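Protocol step 4 of 5: obtain the predicted structure for the target chain.
Materials: sequence only (see below). No template structures provided, no constraints applied. The aim of this step is simply to have a reference model before the mutagenesis design in step 5. Sequence pasted as it appears in the construct record:
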Amino acid sequence: MAGSLLLWAAALLLLLAVGGAVPPPPPPEEAARMARFVLHNCDWGALATLSTQEGLRGRPFANIFSLSDGPPGPVGGSGVPYLYLTDMEISVQDLEINSNASLTVSLAQTPYCKKHRYDPQNPLCAHIIFCGSIVKVNDSEAGLAKKALFSRHPEMESWPKDHNWFFAKFNITNIWVLDYFGGLKIVTPEEYYSVKP
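Step 4 output (structure tokens):
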């Protein structure tokens, strides 16, 4: 335990010395905060569904989606992964049959891991796996979803209106954190939403 704290402190000092766009992550002992931190600092994730497509029916199918839990910045987001979707998209067609999915986000998409020379598969390049379901947001939440997504992905505002885009969120039921050696850590949604990133 003391060794892991020393390693984390050394990484923090190195990051502060060289600067960087991504603030230092929480220590490995704070798995719920780490999950919030990684999600907030990622602009996209790999969403896995059970395919309904001919030739792939019932098999896992992963696809990249832009996401946001709130506007970028140190304040932190809501923790809710919002997405902007259309029924024309192949994975969304899967979700119409079975809304269950998993979502993986990784600090590998930020400058943090490259700066520390962490391979994306290295546990120190933290990644989070969320399981749950995709649900359309209701009218009262649509404004929040729009602000979260369009602040990070301004191109979305100009996407073709005839594609019938809609705001959705990932309804989290299970969370796994891999941010250090020794295996995955389990975080409950209650723990996840109760911490400040």
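Step 4 remarks: The radius of gyration is 17 Å. The domain at 31-194 is CATH 2.30.110.10 (Pnp Oxidase; Chain A).
Proceed to step 5.
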